[in-house]
Amino acid sequence: MAKAVADDYLRRIPKAELHCHLAGTLRATTVAELAKRYGMTLPRPAETLYQWPDFDGFLEILRIAAAVLRTPADFTRAVYEYIEDAVRDGNLKHVEFFFNPDYFYPNGIDYPSQVAGMVEGLRQAKERFGVSGLLICCIDRSLNNGDQAVEIVETALAHRHELVVGIGLDGNESVGPPALYAEAYALARKGGLKCTAHCCEDYLTPLQAPPTNYLICRDVLRCDRIDHGYNMLASDFVMAEARRDGLYFTPCAWTSLLHNRPHRPRRIRRMVEAGLNVTINTDDPAMFGTNLGHGFTTLFESNGWGPDKARTFSLNSIEGSWLDESAKAALRKTFRREIAALDKEFGYETAALPV
Length: 355
Ligand code: HPA
Ligand code: ZN
Fold this sequence. Notes:
Blueprint: H1 7-12, E1 15-21, H2 28-37, H3 46-49, H4 55-66, H5 72-90, E2 92-99, H6 111-129, E3 132-140, H7 146-158, E4 164-170, H8 182-190, E5 194-199, H9 212-219, E6 225-228, H10 236-245, E7 248-250, H11 264-273, E8 277-278, H12 285-288, H13 292-303, H14 307-319, H15 325-346
Parallel strand pairs: 1-2, 2-3, 3-4, 4-5, 5-6, 6-7, 7-8
Hypoxanthine (HPA) is lined by residues 21, 24, 62, 170-171, 198, 201, 283-284.
């Protein structure tokens, strides 16, 4: 059966990435090169580095990869390389990176130096590719209790940078349920930071990462956006609430666990069909062996979606972003122009584009 939309159209439609972890974007070859430079022994060579038995094993490798970033220049390189790859593989126009500052402290790089390195990477990528970027200071719940999370937010506020626009919460959801972080999130909001949190991830069962975690993220953490969200599907009530709330979700087409990969397209389809505001993201692209273009082609092939859905996801990624209104307006123009050109090239009728 012919595909409802060409893979090349999906790869080339413009995109903003709202959910990717800097450590998970590191090319294995870059990790190996930097590890050698710093005399750090990796568990395996680059070709097989990105393998793990389970979710906590994945987090362990992620933190090992992160440990090769030791100077501002390493952070600059990491940011630049992700953007270079994502422009090529998925026509990236804007990215919002999670970074976990405490992953890097053991190697002697403080918060301002991390941020300075990433900001320089964003500057270089903007100049070379025209891609914009923002940063999200992230709390790994597997490593940080509520008090430690407050310290992370205090650091972000003490060294406020205009490109660090929000906080996030990642790591193992069953170890750190969202309510633990109420104080950290209140502090962040008071300081003018936006808030998102990983929620209802499907490496856990709906009993371990229950749909009610969404309600806690909404009402206690007062999140502006939600990362993932699949286990919410277990509750019609929570799905109806989320539809009414209208928050943007950042599910990811590919995942750390092989056994979950076949289920993601269906879970994301159900989120879309339930009327949630969905964007499509990569999470940890280098580690998972995926990219923005691949994520789109995988989802569209499984779900039989056509170009209309591609346009919706493309434009949703602007609306769900944390850019200011004028930057969003500029991106909308660029996206609409590129989408119209693609539609013409591929012979797809341009229906009225969603606003
Ligand atoms: N979930 C939780 N922790 C993570 C993830 C994720 O998707 N990616 C990197 N750390
Ligand atoms: Zn994530």
